[in-house]
Amino acid sequence: MKEQLATIRTEALAAFASAGTAGDLDALRVKYLGKKGELTAVLKQMGKLTPEERPAMGALANEVRSALEGALEAASEKLEAAALAQRLRDEAVDVTIPGKAVALGHRHPMYIALDEIKDIFIGMGFTVLDGPEVELASYNFDKLNAEEGHPSRDWSDTFYFDEDSRVMLRSQTSPMQVRAMDTMPLPIRIVAPGRVYRKDEVDATHSPMFHQVEGMVIDRHITMADLKGTLNAMVEQLYGKGTKTRFRPHHFPFTEPSCEMDVQCHKCGGAGCPTCKGEGWIELLGAGMIHPHVLEMAGIDPEVWSGWAFGIGLERTAMRRFKIADLRLIFENDMRFLEQF
Ligand code: DAH
To answer: Is the pLDDT of residue 271 over 80?
Structure first.
């Protein structure tokens, strides 16, 4: 029995010391110290000993047990320390490795043009409004003096949601004039940029979705001179001091009188060239004095208040500003194009 205990001790100590993982070590604990382990098996034979032999053998067995337990603990600590060291090695961060460059985006050319326009008008005390793209036909047409039968209301031009043409994708930002009149106290100075929709085929100058910026002023004693002065100020800031403009008579249902404003061609200075199709002028926007009936429909007394409004196409403004030849480039999101701005 003495020899058995000695053998167990030698074998177990050697095995513990060479265990490679915590799992191996636990299996060895069961093998030597477990209930059905080798040490327990020896102890079960104690009954066969004489009463004189028992105390000495008991003491020896206890000594072997505590030696095994001590060795087991030491081996376990050694394994843990090794595992920690390994993890520290594996998870080490090398701060000298060059970082991954983050590709920083930038503003889209059309939004650069929009921000410029916003800045100009904010500088003159205007408020910037945002409005719904899904609009009531009453706001897009009726309250803007374009009654039933007006050609712009045709199904071939407009995206309607319902059979009786009451809800639609707005075809212009002009309904924001009505929304501003409905909700804001007078006097009003607003610009309202946003998307508009028309049933147009895509080509170099058309898209079924494009952007406009609406502008409107209502106050006492507002005249066409205010409209011309403000739009000239905008053009000079967009295209440079001294840029010439021209106002041509036109028709819009919600303004009277109405006009279109052209800027002198930046390419040829008015002499005529391919950019301006030989005209010397490039059409920029529609504008006019708000029709008294439009004011009346919004509950504003046209004897006391008057106003002007304009609507400018944003894509065209950006195309002119950055000399972009094809409208489709603005929407295609081709990085080779976008990265040039
Ligand atoms: N809404 C017009 C269009 O889409 C543009 C326009 C013209 C807006 C005259 C106005 C305006 O505010 O006064 O063609």
So the answer is: yes
pTM of the predicted protein model: 0.72
Question: Hey, what amino acid is at 159?
Answer: F
Examine the pLDDT at 124 and tell me if it is beyond 90. Answer: yes
> In 1-37, which ranges are continuous DSSP H helix?
2-18, 22-33
Using CB atoms within 10 A of its CB, is residue 267 exposed (0-12), middle (13-18) or buried (19+)?
middle
Contact (CB, 8 A) for 195 and 209:
yes
Cβ–Cβ under 8 Å, residues 316 and 329: no
Domain 109-338: CATH architecture, name and number where available: 2-Layer Sandwich (3.30)
Q: What is the largest CA-CA distance in the chain?
A: 130
Query: For a substitution probing ligand 1, which of 230, 254, 315 has the most ligand atoms within 8 Å of its CB?
Result: 254
Domain boundary assignment for the chain: 2-90, 109-338
What are the tens digits of pLDDT across the range 158-181? Answer: 999 999 999 999 999 999 999 999
The two structure tokens encoding residue 249: 């008579």
Q: Which stretches of the chain are DSSP H helices? A: 2-18, 22-33, 38-43, 53-90, 109-123, 137-140, 175-183, 224-239, 292-297, 314-322, 328-332, 335-338
| Gyration radius from the chain CA atoms | 43
- Between 105 and 198, the more confident residue is 198
> Strands 245-252 and 167-169, how do they pair?
unpaired
Lowest-confidence segment of 185-189, 199-203, 216-220, 308-312 by average pLDDT: 199-203
**288 close to ligand 1 (CB < 6 Angstrom):** yes
Asked whether the predicted pLDDT for residue 230 surpasses 90, the reply is yes
Please say whether the beta carbons of 121 and 215 come within 8 A. yes
Is the CB of 309 inside a 6 Å radius of any atom of ligand 1? yes
Q: Is the CB of 175 under 6 A from ligand 1?
A: no
